[in-house]
Design goal:
four-stranded antiparallel sheet; mainly beta
Length: 118
């Protein structure tokens, strides 16, 4: 399955992450729904996690590890989850293979990809 970056008015869309605020929670509207994301950092394992909540504060996913190039929330999907596919990646051509404190939110962003429904 090929994924296409969502392209509106030639702007590549992504969810902004500010590692200087971690741990923190923010809301974002994706397609027709608003979600809350809580971004945390596990200093021992050196990885980020994201908790996903619906507009009513119900937990959809807890402790999802942010892995470079792997779609978030891909293990369990149903109609409550975001329509776009969210993939942590770098589109600058740099050779990055993991999400780190130094690159997350800067070079590595949570890019939105069009979900192909077949």
């Amino acid at each position: 399955m090929a994924l296409q970056l969502i392209d509106l008015n030639s702007d590549v869309q992504y969810i902004t992450i500010d590692v200087s605020r971690v741990p923190y929670t923010f809301s974002v509207k994706l397609t027709d729904r608003t979600y809350s994301f809580t971004v945390k950092y596990n200093a021992t394992g050196k990885f980020f996690t994201i908790d996903l909540y619906d507009v009513n504060g119900n937990v959809l996913t807890f402790g999802e590890i942010v892995r470079y190039g792997r779609p978030l929330f891909n293990v369990v999907e149903d109609e409550r989850f975001p329509i776009p596919v969210i993939i942590p990646s770098c589109i600058t051509g740099d050779s990055i293979s993991e999400v780190t404190w130094e690159n997350f939110g800067k070079d590595v962003k949570l890019y939105l990809h069009e979900r192909k429904v077949e």
